[in-house]
Amino acid sequence: MHACTVTTSFDCLHIWCTYYCHFDWTQVGKQVNPLINILSLKATASIMGRLDGKVIVLSAAAQGIGHAAALAFAKEGAQVTATDINGEKLKELNGIPGIKTKVVDVTKKDQVEALAKEHDHVDVLFNVAGFVHHGSILDCEETDWDFTMNVNIRSMYLMCKAFLPKMLEKKSGNIINMASVASSIKGVVNRCVYSTSKAAVIGLTKSIAADFIEKGIRCNCVCPGTVDTPSLRGRIQAQPDPEQAYKDFMARQKTGRMCTAEEVAHLCVYLASDESAYVTGTEQIIDGGWRL
User: Which CDD domains does the record cross-reference, listed alphabetically (predicted)?
Assistant: First the structure.
């Protein structure tokens, strides 16, 4: 054996070629340059962001999935406009490179249209805002129904309608809507109006995808199972027996754990990137097998 000190991957290549292949190192320029070029390209690619140059607008970015997605988008090089109705929580994103924040109520048509006018173009629109009502149809008053539909589906209608025209001008655009496995995918106890609204999101997604597929527009929805977010924890604490409520949530997790907001954000990065250029009109399920 030959004693040596390896300091770089190039040293490893030198040692392997010299001692195991009897390689004439004087020919390195002729023999190894192609390999080094490939390694250089890979190194450069790893530094480049998957979303470099993309302009992304998203809602509900103050916490949970929206917050995680805003951070993930910016980390991959996107210019992100992160909106939320909660201005205080939204401030946590201030100062992060690639992110600017704006307080917007996406159920208000005038605020949504003003937001759209502020952008010359948007590459990706991510509609995240949502509300979870607990109960069956008998527990759902008309006010509960109207409020849930207003937040969960009407807000997406307003956002898509406001941002689509500029996407169509460019003949390029990408819309991601937040749906759920609790929808037309799976019937879930005590999620009547929520599941109904999320089934509507799936329908809206497929309709937009079908209507504008030949005009350069993609539209997909993300369908999570149970995600560990501040919203979920708040709903658990609001139950008469929070400890039992937590156990009930965990009992339906076939993987033995809940999904994280960051895991959903990783999927959203894929959908926002050119890696998913041939993907449209789909339900992207991330539920740990809950639907099975």
Answer: DHRS6_like_SDR_c
